[in-house]
UniProtKB/TrEMBL annotation:
Organism: Gilliamella apicola
InterPro entries linked to this entry: DmsD-type, DMSO/NO3_reduct_chaperone, TorD-like_sf, TorD/DmsD_chaperones
Annotated PANTHER family: CHAPERONE PROTEIN YCDY, TAT PROOFREADING CHAPERONE DMSD-RELATED
Highest rank taxon of the organism: Bacteria
Alphabetical UniProt keywords: Chaperone
Protein name as it appears in the record: Molecular chaperone
Amino acid sequence: MAKILGAFFYYPPKSEQINSLLEGLLQVDQLTNWPNQSLITEQCQILKKQIDHPEIEYQFSLLFEGQGSMIAPPWGSVYLDQDKLLMGESQERYRAFLQQQGLRLNTGMNEPEDQFGLMLMAYALLLEKHQFQAAKQLLTEHLLTWAPAYLDSLKQNQISPFYQALAIVAENYLPML
């Protein structure tokens, strides 16, 4: 599930990477025993309705690519570093962590590795490689230190009901890890 959520927080909604994962996202309420099943089912209904919104690509661009002022920047260093800038000390620590684990994230895009979706996908990759201690370290030292603030901001966005619902699903998923 971390890979599915991570991809939707990273790739544009009409991209090739998302196509194969769409059914999984739209049925995420059935993939695990959620503490608040009705809330997640409700969010899945919103996701199903909104994925075909004519402006979904534009909404993604505003929220994740930064046209103008970003309401909820998806990079950890914005939340963790004193100057609230990209590529800060926390991002450098995370990059060193990835290198120690032998992970090289090559997405074809030139962006900091501490992007929320990328971090979820790195977590999933560590689990796939049976690096359970490293996966736990990624969560406790790098992702969960800022994810609640990010998801709270994304939930409050007035741009996209799709990404509001996605933030609620992720917010409910993280405590289950």
